Prior knowledge:
Elements: H1 2-12, H2 16-35, H3 40-71, H4 82-96, H5 104-110, H6 114-121, H7 126-134, H8 141-158, H9 165-182, H10 188-212, H11 217-221, H12 228-242, H13 250-262, H14 266-291, H15 313-324, H16 329-335
InterPro entries: Complex_I_Subunit_2, NADH_DH_su2_C, NADH_UbQ_OxRdtase_chain2, ND/Mrp_TM
EC number: 7.1.1.2
GO molecular function: NADH dehydrogenase (ubiquinone) activity
Amino acid sequence: MSLLLGTTITISSNHWMMAWTGLEINTLAIIPLISKSHHPRAIEAATKYFLTQAAASALLLFSSMTNAWFTGQWDITQLTHPTSCLLLTTAVSIKLGLTPFHFWFPEVLQGSSMTTGLLLATLMKFPPTALLVLTSPSLNPTLLTTMAIASAALGGWMGLNQTQVRKILAFSSISHLGWMTIILLYNPKLTLLTFYLYCLMTSAIFLALNTTKITNLATMMTAWTKIPPLAATLMLALLSLAGLPPLTGFLPKWLIIQELTKQEMTSVATTIALLSLLGLFFYLRLAYCATITLPPNSSNHMKQWQTNKSVRIPITTLICLSIMLLPLSPMIFATT
């Protein structure tokens, strides 16, 4: 209830103090969910999350107060002072986990359960993204483009040598944030579309991983024995998150590259498209482990043959949407 309340307050407010209040409610609501397992790693993750979010919230409050001091405006859309714009960009980047403020996110996601990790990767990123969209006309284009390209590069590069699935999904999230940020100033609606589709695909993958109890590549290699149809569709959902046509994940990348080309930013579009190939490599490795291979050596994990565990309807619906939404792209073109 508090998570929904905090998110609603932030995305519907016009006043900086109300937006800050919503972010604080969100932070205080997610910390018990991260630490509820009472494991030392979970407590460490909750502490890291609290410290980074508290620092980001203080910066955001300082930014809005500085703007109000110089302009007399507390309205979110009236952010005009240059120092305030820079501080706000830094604060929101810390909250989202954009490069170079990404260090906390993989560690916190690794210390959380799959369900809490899903909330951290989707719902908790919505209020800061909404603030970025609302203040986009005031932000610095060079700074945002640099951070976006750095996020896409680092998300792909750091995900290559990971074996923990949650850390791989954390670096995947950082890489997708780069795609959302790079188009923010030119087409904010496209940023929101990318965010919605990212949430859809990530939710499908997290719920499928939670159902099959996959935590790393070793357990993923034996997961096909539990629910074979889910493992096959999980592979397609991972390839969709990678952005391969004709799956859903190709749609935002296609539209972003098209918009960047229209803005005569062909070199930037080429750079970020090439950097997404790094991410494609570890998505392909995950998909390969999920369905095709057996472990190359003796595994310590118990192999199970078809369990009685049933796949719930929300998972199947989310996976179907995360795979087959690309045919709706003409409708999106028609409305925009």
